[in-house]
Model the fold of this input.
Amino acid sequence: GRLNITVAQAKLVKNYGMTRMDPYVRLRVGHCVYETHTDPNGGKNPSWNKVVQCLLPQGVTSMYLEIYDECSFTMDELIAWAQVPIPQAVMAGETHEEWYPLNGKQGDGQEGMINLVLSYTKVPMNPYGMYAGGTMAPVMMVPSTAAPMYGMRQYAPVPVYTQPPVPVAPPPQFNEADLKQVEEMFPNMDKEVVKSVYEANRGNKDATVNSLLQMCE
Done:
């Protein structure tokens, strides 16, 4: 299925360095890595409102995230990190908004908090390795353990999940008037974020407003 992650904002306990930090988030789901944009001078209260959509590999029940301070003349500095379990409620179709504790130099769970909104959409795969919509599951050729044939090593196809393609699903039918009303209620929030939360709530206007209010707190 497809996991939708909104990396909203963070509250960090310390600003490392002489100037305000320029934080960004690096997120790993399975073998895939995603990054938000940098929040210039975000300091201890960075905000991203970045929406990440990724296929969730079978058996993956958590994701790993890191917050870095972007540096101009040296390597980017790792500020905080966390392993975030994917709640069962999300896998059941609910939208889940939560503040997660961050680990860092201050200690486990002592570096601050990060605000994430998670939702999940099922994307079935048939026995032929095809995702709904006709997209092939990722396959990589690896050496077989069988004896070489005619002096040449055999290669066998093995499914992998390094860079799964995002299936093209038909767009859901939502009420544009409701979406416009929600956007007008939150004029300072990016319209793409509002739309993503609206879609994650399956067009439920009240649930969307509640989720956005929690993100604004």
The chain is about 15% helix and 40% strand. The helical segments are 88-91, 176-185, 191-200, 205-216. Residues 205-216 form the longest helix (12 residues). Residues 127-166 have pLDDT under 50 and may be disordered.
